[in-house]
Amino acid sequence: MSATESPKYTVKDFASDQDVRWCPGCGDYSVLAAVKKVLVNLGIAPEQYAFISGIGCSSRFPYYMNTYGMHSIHGRALAVATGFKVAPPDMQTVVITGDGDALSIGGNHTIHALRRNVDFTVLLFNNEIYGLTKGQYSPTSPIGKKTKSSPYGSLDQPLNPLAIALAAEASFVARTVDMHPKHLQETIERAMRHKGSSFVEIYQNCNIFNDGAMAHAQDRKVRADNVVEIKHGEPMVYGKELNKGLMRKGRDVIPVTIGENGVTMDDIVRHDEHAPVGIHAQLARLKYPAFPEPIGVIRAVERPTYNDLVNDQVADAIEARGGRPDLQQLLNGNSTWEVNEQGETIGR
């Protein structure tokens, strides 16, 4: 291998020796496979990655990666990952979390990590249920959802992960689907190449406690009419015949059929990843069955990252002091004294 040639990695290089223990048919398997393929494409050594997780079925992820990792505590994955990214800033850091972990007990950490623009990728597995604890309703469960903890139906208005990320002004926001392998891999790769906080909501099926909740976006027979795959600079069209689209009507974005009521392709909104948050927030609010749901990169902008700003601030402080001070001098401070053998105190 020449000095300039990059090493070639395979999927096996990123696979640990641990048996993968998710329920048969779980969507987590698809995400794990996609992530390994992305790491191969990125061409970065396994020891340069850290996978940090919280608590939940998805949070077993670090065990299955031949990289550095930490299975942290409930809701604290983004807080732990922030500290990890700031300390060794050249490490590629990925947060693995779920709708319960990141949006319930961990909701505050999620908001602040995204607003700070910490340079890591957050993969949020959204199955609209607490799977690890056997089927209670979660922050993203729909109203009326009957579970072990809501036997008469949930009364809570569900949280919208994309809306949360956009409100926190994450610099990269996207949504993809576990059973759409090509789209899943492409979206994760774009997120990991982004410099700054990249947030990816992954529709993921829990076939034990919430089977079919994401069928509208997973089933190949119907998903073309239920999701609109958005791409920067292209019109937002969808449907099996690509004859439907999203059009502006006043302040709203509405679904229309091209060719009906005088609607032409020129009326269809073209997606702009770099536009102000307003239009992106409108897209995030489009929910099935009233609207087709957007999948793809919703927002991608560049701004300074928190870890770069922290390290620049430390460097400036060191320079202002004339270099790194002696550790013992720092411990002594400006006011020290010595007690001699006679018990007398001698000041310095």
Characterization of this structure:
The structure is a single chain. With 348 residues, the chain is of the alpha/beta class. It folds into two domains: 11-218, Thiamin diphosphate (ThDP)-binding fold, Pyr/PP domains (Rossmann fold), CATH 3.40.50.970; 308-347, no CATH class. 28% of the residues lie in helices and 19% in strands. It has eleven helices and 13 strands. A hairpin with a 5-residue loop joins β8 and β9 (244-249). The longest helix is centred in the N-terminal third of the chain and has 15 residues, at 28-42. The chain is globular and about 100 Å long. The termini are far apart.
Task: Please identify which CATH superfamily of the largest domain we are dealing with.
Answer: Thiamin diphosphate (ThDP)-binding fold, Pyr/PP domains
Give the mean pLDDT.
93
* CA-based shape: globular
Please report the total strand number as a whole number: 13
Order of helices and strands: HEEHEHHEHEHEHHEEEEHEHHEE
Kindly, what is the distance between the CA atoms of the first and last residues, rounded to a whole number of angstroms? Answer: 60 Å
- CATH domain fold name of the largest domain: Rossmann fold
Give the structural class. alpha/beta
